[in-house]
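Service request form, structural biology core

Requester: graduate student, group of Dr. S.
Request type: structure prediction, single chain
Budget code: on file
Notes: please return the result as structure tokens.

Sequence provided:
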Amino acid sequence: MIVFFDIDGTLVSDDEAYTIPESAVNAIRAARKNGHFMYIDTGRTVMNVEDKLRNIGFDGYICGCGIYIESGGKVIFNREPDKRRCMEIAELVHECDMTPMYEHSKSFFTDKRCRPFDGFTKLKRRFENQGKDLSPDVSDEAFVFDKLLAWYDDKSDLKRFKEGTEADFDFIIRGDGFCELTVKGYSKGTGIARVCEYHNIPISEAYAIGDSMNDLPMLMAVPNSIVMGDASEELKKTASFVTKPLLEDGIEYALKYFGMI
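Core staff response, request fulfilled:
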């Protein structure tokens, strides 16, 4: 069997403590020892999967909502961004008076011209406290991106922004004046399909574990969808199985329930 894990709220507590329960680490290692494949499937780009997660021991990583896939230390899929289009969108974001955080497989980029929204400042500080470098700017020669986060308010031209990006990106409202753009045609679900094909594993033996509505593409891609116990009631309705909350040994409980450990 093969299991795909979301990160925030599923493997790691979605709070300032940023806790990975020891029971989850031990359960994942035990499942691998028993011959099951364990994969991270995240919206984060690969450079944003830190060592504390990698050190758990996974067979591979689906990152950036399916645009980058690594298996056994080998890159098996990587969509290269179009630099010209990246520059066009960066100008559009600025003209629409929004504040972006661009993510690429090798770096973060911000735009010093944009005003500092509270949500942006908070996330930037969190990443910097984790040792991530957020000094690169859209003006740098190396600027490209695989996905972007953006903050907005009633002064922002959100309508123009959506119309100017919809041909290439899927627009996701995250709430509280915060949105996300992911590359159209790619998702956590398409990543699962590629990995199952790579390992020649039937989709009937694939499991996905998530905790929020942005995990729906991965949960809908498999017949065995697992939702964390502290997820919304709306998401729980989509699940094949609802496990316990993360901090109540939810990962261990799920892997035991399905006989992997």
